[in-house]
């Protein structure tokens, strides 16, 4: 028996999805696949399936702080991943928590919409997140619809949204796939003016939990010490493979296969 684990611990502050496609289960599986250990702190409970979200409830501030502080006091956390927060109050709570740990790499996935389009917080939550949490993040990973909400540009391009958001964050990864283009463009922007684009083949169908998968994989790569540009590339490649091998477990979107079939064999 190994007394001391060599796996980096990643604290995940995300919502719970009972379908298992997104949220904390996506975080856990994606981090295991990177060779990391996920420490999940629940921020919200949702009523959703692979079709859409119908309701959610944000947990009390004290409960979220207690969960996260228990992990931080007990383990050497190597990175933090943020998912669904759901309310302005929860944004403020998480900002307060993270301000006490500024040394930790932070991946901020601004979860504002479910894969089926349902809202997971009012647009004002996005604006609060932009003002309070993006400045604390190592990198933010919105998809283009989320970037438009954050930037207050309803029809903005990725470049236009990045111009509006980069004053708030050091690195910004805006993912594609929400249009009808044959190739998906994922764009990394940095405050020093660098711009990287990765393209991948569009896969048929739509997917539940792809953003959670990407952000968690990226947090895992950073926890392992990988440099940011390389970590983004690795996380994008991994996420594409999970979508290529995705399964239709319900009546709606496909669920990424984040662990290999022989994982437990």
TrEMBL record:
<dbReference type="Pfam" id="PF08543">
    <property type="entry name" value="Phos_pyr_kin"/>
</dbReference>
<dbReference type="InterPro" id="IPR029056">
    <property type="entry name" value="Ribokinase-like"/>
</dbReference>
<dbReference type="InterPro" id="IPR004399">
    <property type="entry name" value="HMP/HMP-P_kinase_dom"/>
</dbReference>
<dbReference type="GO" id="GO:0008902">
    <property type="term" value="F:hydroxymethylpyrimidine kinase activity"/>
</dbReference>
<keyword id="KW-0808">Transferase</keyword>
<comment type="pathway">
    <text>Cofactor biosynthesis; thiamine diphosphate biosynthesis.</text>
</comment>
<keyword id="KW-0418">Kinase</keyword>
<dbReference type="GO" id="GO:0005829">
    <property type="term" value="C:cytosol"/>
</dbReference>
<dbReference type="GO" id="GO:0008972">
    <property type="term" value="F:phosphomethylpyrimidine kinase activity"/>
</dbReference>
<protein>
    <recommendedName>
        <fullName>hydroxymethylpyrimidine kinase</fullName>
        <ecNumber>2.7.1.49</ecNumber>
    </recommendedName>
</protein>
<dbReference type="GO" id="GO:0009229">
    <property type="term" value="P:thiamine diphosphate biosynthetic process"/>
</dbReference>
<dbReference type="InterPro" id="IPR013749">
    <property type="entry name" value="PM/HMP-P_kinase-1"/>
</dbReference>
<dbReference type="GO" id="GO:0009228">
    <property type="term" value="P:thiamine biosynthetic process"/>
</dbReference>
<feature type="domain" description="Pyridoxamine kinase/Phosphomethylpyrimidine kinase">
    <location>
        <begin position="17"/>
        <end position="253"/>
    </location>
</feature>
